[in-house]
């Protein structure tokens, strides 16, 4: 029993060390050598294309549901007119970024994990390395930067679509013009709502790309390890998203929300 | 057939050894794969390695390019110890050594053309598109796959993939070629063509080759020297005909077994 704990602990430490090495290799390759622009653009397109629909639908529903759920409570307080404001703050600060990131973890981290995992298993990564090309530069740097770039964009899109969903739900019961609704939403927001949330999504994107690449790149040889890599990429990336979120909220409340 | 026993003994004095493996051992956990492997390969020599499946032939050549590191012993390529090379040196070495994977290892998100262009643009950093096209065409012609140039690897047969892998390795014209079963899974006619291509590479570009194979025809065509591997060690060495006519039971069994 004690032995198991010790070996488990050792493995965990080893894993962290390996991730550290992987991170250094990533950083070293970002600032060194030729950047693979075309692969980067291709990845950005893939990521956007793969997730936009899902992010859009989820955000739309989230906006609607939030309005429907918040309405009775605010009605009770007689603060019905606060609905757009409440929605936009919760959506922009928290729900938009986190929902988008979780969806991207499921969609993108898993597919990166599976893709690199299968490249590892079928010796494509070895082949690239042996040919003298740089697989980290071609495969890893492009993917991590692409997720770090695209997840924030997707989150912004999600925010906007969520607000639309909220408007639709509001029109079920209230008669409010779109421009008034939108004005109320925007007026409620401050840079201190917007900027920290945006920065947070960059980290979410980084975590998704990094975890996906790490899990795929370090998967064992054997077909079942591809599935394993994809699976643990999703789980780990999701976990990271919540950890980053918890840290981010501490920092922003220290700095801004006094 | 005597022609295959060429430049073995006579050039030995002014040795120009490009790969020198001495006493390497390699184990994966409890599985001792390589027990004591030593071999020297001279410039523009074709060495064929024969051996039963799972004997560690692939592991040996992976040690030469630094994909695996032996537990003990030394691997020197062009006179330099592989395990002590810096990243830059290793990269430089790898541009001079071609490696054909047993599986072909084609990049499956790229077309055949992109697969072949990859080492040209990423490793040799050739910018001239005309030069690239010329080389792609030349090398694809060599393996007889000109019309597959825009296909994706998933649309190719196993044998075709193997040949594209071969083309991708040959396109950079490496000084040393490591072939892991270049003809396995090919029909006899294509096999023979591939074997002749290997021979042609040696004659034309003075390429040094290590060829792992189970295909006796290929061994016969390409080999200057044959090594037989068994149980993590080399048990015999000589020209193809010498070994074939050997009286040693182990060697005989091997030839009867595989032909
Ligand atoms: N990366 C690895 N990790 C663990 N074990 C390995 C690894 N590579 C090879 N082995 C083991 O080493 C042994 C030799 O493998 P190798 O691929 O070198 O055989 P081989 O002689 O090339 O056989 P074949 O003719 O079938 O290709 C096998 O038992 C294999 O399980
Ligand atoms: Mg093998």
TrEMBL record, chain A:
<feature type="transmembrane region" description="Helical">
    <location>
        <begin position="194"/>
        <end position="217"/>
    </location>
</feature>
<dbReference type="InterPro" id="IPR030802">
    <property type="entry name" value="Permease_MalE"/>
</dbReference>
<feature type="transmembrane region" description="Helical">
    <location>
        <begin position="161"/>
        <end position="182"/>
    </location>
</feature>
<protein>
    <submittedName>
        <fullName>ABC transporter permease</fullName>
    </submittedName>
</protein>
<feature type="transmembrane region" description="Helical">
    <location>
        <begin position="237"/>
        <end position="257"/>
    </location>
</feature>
<keyword id="KW-0472">Membrane</keyword>
<feature type="transmembrane region" description="Helical">
    <location>
        <begin position="91"/>
        <end position="114"/>
    </location>
</feature>
<keyword id="KW-0812">Transmembrane</keyword>
<feature type="transmembrane region" description="Helical">
    <location>
        <begin position="52"/>
        <end position="71"/>
    </location>
</feature>
<dbReference type="GO" id="GO:0005548">
    <property type="term" value="F:phospholipid transporter activity"/>
</dbReference>
<comment type="similarity">
    <text>Belongs to the MlaE permease family.</text>
</comment>
<dbReference type="InterPro" id="IPR003453">
    <property type="entry name" value="ABC_MlaE_roteobac"/>
</dbReference>
<dbReference type="Pfam" id="PF02405">
    <property type="entry name" value="MlaE"/>
</dbReference>
<keyword id="KW-1133">Transmembrane helix</keyword>
<dbReference type="GO" id="GO:0043190">
    <property type="term" value="C:ATP-binding cassette (ABC) transporter complex"/>
</dbReference>
Automatic annotation (TrEMBL), chain B:
<dbReference type="GO" id="GO:0005524">
    <property type="term" value="F:ATP binding"/>
</dbReference>
<dbReference type="InterPro" id="IPR003593">
    <property type="entry name" value="AAA+_ATPase"/>
</dbReference>
<feature type="domain" description="ABC transporter">
    <location>
        <begin position="19"/>
        <end position="256"/>
    </location>
</feature>
<keyword id="KW-0813">Transport</keyword>
<dbReference type="Pfam" id="PF00005">
    <property type="entry name" value="ABC_tran"/>
</dbReference>
<keyword id="KW-0067">ATP-binding</keyword>
<dbReference type="InterPro" id="IPR003439">
    <property type="entry name" value="ABC_transporter-like_ATP-bd"/>
</dbReference>
<protein>
    <submittedName>
        <fullName>ATP-binding cassette domain-containing protein</fullName>
    </submittedName>
</protein>
<keyword id="KW-0547">Nucleotide-binding</keyword>
<dbReference type="InterPro" id="IPR027417">
    <property type="entry name" value="P-loop_NTPase"/>
</dbReference>
<dbReference type="GO" id="GO:0016887">
    <property type="term" value="F:ATP hydrolysis activity"/>
</dbReference>
<dbReference type="InterPro" id="IPR017871">
    <property type="entry name" value="ABC_transporter-like_CS"/>
</dbReference>
């Amino acid at each position: 029993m004690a032995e198991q704990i010790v070996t488990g602990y050792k493995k965990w430490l080893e894993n962290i060390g390996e991730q550290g090495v992987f991170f250094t290799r990533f950083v070293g390759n970002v600032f060194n050598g030729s950047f693979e622009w075309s692969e980067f653009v291709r990845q950005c397109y893939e990521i956007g294309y793969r997730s936009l629909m899902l992010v859009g639908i989820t955000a739309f529903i989230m906006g609607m549901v939030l309005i429907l759920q918040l309405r009775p409570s605010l009605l009770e307080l007689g603060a019905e007119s606060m609905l757009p404001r409440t929605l936009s703050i919760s959506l922009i600060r928290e729900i938009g970024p986190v929902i988008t990131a979780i969806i991207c973890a499921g969609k993108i981290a898993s597919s990166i994990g599976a893709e690199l995992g299968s490249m590892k298993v079928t010796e494509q990564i070895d082949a690239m390395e042996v040919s003298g090309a740089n697989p980290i530069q071609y495969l890893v740097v492009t993917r991590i930067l692409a997720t770090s770039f695209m997840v924030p964009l997707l989150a912004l899109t999600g925010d906007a679509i969520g607000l639309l969903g909220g408007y639709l739900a509001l029109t079920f019961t209230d008669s409010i013009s779109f421009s008034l609704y939108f004005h109320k939403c925007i007026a409620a927001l401050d840079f201190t709502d917007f900027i920290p949330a945006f920065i947070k999504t960059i980290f979410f994107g980084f975590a998704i790309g990094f975890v996906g690449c790490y899990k795929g790149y370090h998967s064992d040889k054997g077909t079942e390890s591809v599935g394993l890599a994809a699976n643990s990429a999703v789980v780990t990336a999701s976990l990271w998203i919540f950890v980053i979120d918890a840290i981010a909220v501490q920092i922003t409340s220290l700095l801004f929300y006094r | 057939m005597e022609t295959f026993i060429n430049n073995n003994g006579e050039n030995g004095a002014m040795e120009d050894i490009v790969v020198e493996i001495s006493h390497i051992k390699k184990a994966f956990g409890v599985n001792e794969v390589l027990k004591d492997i030593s071999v020297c390969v001279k410039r523009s020599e074709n060495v064929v390695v024969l051996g039963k499946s799972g004997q560690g032939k692939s592991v040996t050549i992976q040690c030469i390019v630094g994909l695996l590191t032996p537990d003990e012993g030394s691997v020197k390529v062009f006179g330099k110890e592989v395990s002590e090379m810096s990243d830059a040196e290793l990269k430089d070495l790898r541009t001079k050594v071609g490696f054909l994977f047993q599986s072909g290892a084609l990049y499956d998100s790229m077309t055949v053309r992109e697969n072949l262009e990859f080492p040209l643009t990423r490793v040799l950093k050739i910018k001239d598109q005309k030069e690239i096209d010329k080389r792609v065409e030349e090398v694809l012609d060599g393996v007889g796959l000109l019309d597959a140039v825009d296909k994706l690897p998933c649309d190719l047969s196993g044998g075709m993939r193997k040949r594209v892998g071969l083309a991708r390795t040959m396109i950079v014209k490496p000084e040393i070629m490591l072939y892991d079963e270049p003809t396995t899974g090919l029909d006899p006619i294509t096999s023979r063509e591939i074997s002749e291509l290997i021979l042609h590479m040696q004659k034309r570009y003075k390429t040094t080759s290590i060829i792992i194979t189970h295909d006796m025809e290929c061994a016969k065509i390409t080999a200057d020297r044959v090594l037989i591997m068994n149980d993590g060690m080399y048990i015999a060495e000589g020209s193809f005909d010498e070994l074939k006519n050997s009286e040693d039971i182990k060697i005989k069994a091997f030839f009867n077994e595989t032909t």
